[in-house]
Amino acid sequence: MRFSSFTYLVRQGLHSMRANRLMTFASMGVLTVCMVLIGLAYLLGVNVDAIVEYIGEQNESIVYLEDGLSEEQIADIDAQIRATPGVVSVTYVSPEDVLATYSGMLDEYANMYEAFENDNPFSANYRVVIQDISQLEQISDQLGQIEGVATVSAPLELSHAFTSIQKVVSYGSYGLVAVLAIVSIVVINNTIRITVFARRKEIGIMKLVGATNGFIRFPFFVEGTTSGLISAAIASGIVCGAYYALCQWYAENPSNFSQMFGGQLVPLSSVWYYIVVGFVVLGFVLCGIGTATSIRKHLNV
Amino acid sequence: MIEFEHVTKVYETQNDENVALEDVNLHIDDGEFVFVLGHSGAGKSTFLKLILLEEKCTEGTVIINGQDLTKLKRRKIPYIRRQMGVVFQDFRLIPTMTAYENVAFAMRVTNIPTRQIKKRVPYVLGLVGLGDKMDRLPDELSGGEQQRVALARALAHSPKLIIADEPTGNIDPEMSFEMMELLSAINSVGITVVVVTHEHELVHRFNKRVVTIDHGHIVSDTAHPEVAAAYQAAGGVLPNEFDYAQ
For the whole model, what pTM was predicted? Predict the structure, then answer.
């Protein structure tokens, strides 16, 4: 295609947007709303992931060892725990360490402490942090199988609760994105269809004087994708702006509730480019599909 | 230039078959001026549609400019259409564009560089005598003038073949005579001209080859008297309102 033809076709597309400005405005409005909702679903998902990860890091599983193990046996168990896939960090706590942590509390019962010093009732244990909280149950079962391990105490209920929230949120987000994507395609399809209908006479003439399908389609693609990109820009602004304000508010108004989940949201600086790039790609692809499906029928002259 | 070999076109509807053309043979040479004459419903429109690649024939072959249209790939169709210019009965101008823009539009959408368009459009509009009315909208032009804009548009690509569909249908008799003069002038520089019409009076005024279509058959061809004889020998009846003596 020649450059002069290219600029001509781009101008045609933009001109048609102006000519149908009401319809263009309506479709961009719907697209923007869809994208904002998709963005919110994404941010919700990101934050739930971050919280679940935070909770996972905060909740250690404790692996209690049987009494009377030899040092060799302990070393063997240590190696086995560390070799378990999914285990991030392992800390050994000897019976003396346990006693030491309680020593401060036992000040008033000095004689009891002395008695314990001679005959330590605590057993050695390991504090194990795992990477993915959804694997907690499976990993603690695995740790329980190791010879010499008495019991494994893991915050299973908490992990169940959070992994199920995580699942609901991510499936919900996927579903929402799919529905909104279809809505966007239908909206763009409809807008372009109206434009095509308004210009069917011109299209007929273009066909008869020997314009190729690509030439006929191009202005409509310009129209569709420009709507998509403008919507993406507006939606990025809205979502990023609103999220930035929310992060500020969240940091300035700490509460017990927020402290429980780490005290901060995922910062905008680490998600904004996903939002912007995602919207631009989404706008481009959805509008491209919407346009392609709406004009195919009219090209069979 | 145009060759029809045993061409049959059948339109199939849900429970009916409509034979528009049946075993049509026709040969039009480069540089010829030919009238295709027939009533409405005789098969003229189908004949046009086959040439313009709006329809494909059911049987036989249609060859234009050495290209077999029946074996043509879909994406090649636009390039064949650029080799011919068509003037429609209803002109098919875009009402929101001036005469100049209407001609330029047809060139734009076929990837012709701007510089060439700027030179060519005033030239072809001058050829059809509208050099001073280039900035008028179609509504501000008479029927005859609109038709000449359509002719200028058809000429813009320097086609080797010009097809006029009922060129006298929408304009007064005097204008239509001028139009035919214009088409003759175009023909005199070597461009093949095919005029499709139902008006035998018009045909009668010009001493050109006349091909008559009736009920989907070519029933007479003044360049080949044997066609009519064969048709009558086979029991066919020539439509009697047409004058075949030439």
Answer: 0.71
ipTM rounded to 2 decimals: 0.81
For range A187-211, the mean pLDDT = 84
Beta-sheet strands, E only, within A33-110? 61-65, 87-93
Give the mean pLDDT of B1-8.
92
B81 contact A CB<8A: yes
B110 with A2: Cβ contact below 8 A: no
Q: Rg (Cα) of chain A, in Å, rounded? A: 31
Hey, where are the domains in chain B?
Answer: 90-158
Confidence of residue B240 (pLDDT cuts 50, 70, 90): low
User: Does domain A60-154 bear CATH number 1.10.3720.10?
Assistant: no
Query: For residue B189, what are the contacts with CB-CB under 8 A and spacing of at least 6?
Result: none
pLDDT value of position A258: 67
| Three-state secondary structure call for residue B111 | coil
Q: What's the angle, vertex CA B105, arms to CA B102 and CA B108, rounded to 5?
A: 160
Nearest CA to CA, how far is B79 from chain A (Å)? 6
Count of Cβ atoms closer than 10 Å to residue A5 Cβ: 18
The closest of B211, B178, B237 to B34, measured between CA atoms, is: B211
Task: Give the span between the Cα atoms of A187 and A241, in whole angstroms.
Answer: 26
Residues of B in contact with A207 (CB under 8 A): 78, 81
User: B111 vs A209: CB contact, 8 Å cut-off?
Assistant: no
Share of chain A above pLDDT 70, in %: 91
Band (B246; pLDDT cuts 50, 70, 90): very low
Express as a percent the part of chain B with pLDDT over 70: 97
Q: Which of A31-40, B112-121, B191-200, B228-237 has the lowest mean pLDDT?
A: B228-237
- In whole angstroms, give the CA distance from residue A62 to residue A128: 6
Number of CB atoms found within 10 A of residue A4's CB: 16
Strand order in the sheet with B192-197: B84-87, B161-165, B192-197, B33-37, B209-214, B217-221
